[in-house]
Amino acid sequence: MSRIIADISVSLDGFVTGPDPGPDNGLGTGGEALHTWAFSDDPDDRRVLREGTARSGAVVLGRHLFDVVDGPKGWDDTSGYGAGEVGKPAFVVVTSSPPESVRTTNLDWTFVTTGLRDAVAAAQERAAAASSHSGKDLDVILMGGGSTIGSALEAGLVDTLTLHLAPIVLGAGTPLFAGAAPRTLVQRSVSPTSTCTHLTYDVFR
Are 120 and 140 in contact (CB under 8 A)? Predict the structure, then answer.
């Protein structure tokens, strides 16, 4: 059965972007350092990226993040989900209104206008279909942004939280846990590399 995995890079002070993020500056000022690990030559970073992409049956993201990745400075043939690793899962976008056009037409996009819970349910259906086709269990990945993952945690939609803890202090930006209710997680794995620390936690709904 597919798990729902929230997976995001975060600074030491809890931000998933730097200050002033926007369509032309998706990670905000200084935020590019959050994803240094995804482009690293460190074999452990490559393994984490490869394994994470390979298990992706469908990916959920919010509209703001979609506007960044589909924008003129967004994903292309050399950068995108998995940073050129393996596979192209289905993508499900939570939005109040679908865009009039999509630049990245080589990807499978579904736009859900009825809320996060329905978007996750749609992604579960896509992941189940991908699992049946591939013959192995594939998961739903919540890739962000921060408010989407925070809302999913608060709604009890997340089974596993994977954080890529970058050794930077951004000082400001988009917080991952702004106003979150107290919660105790169960740590399952810690993998330090030359660029960050990969952390995996079980989340009890």
Answer: yes
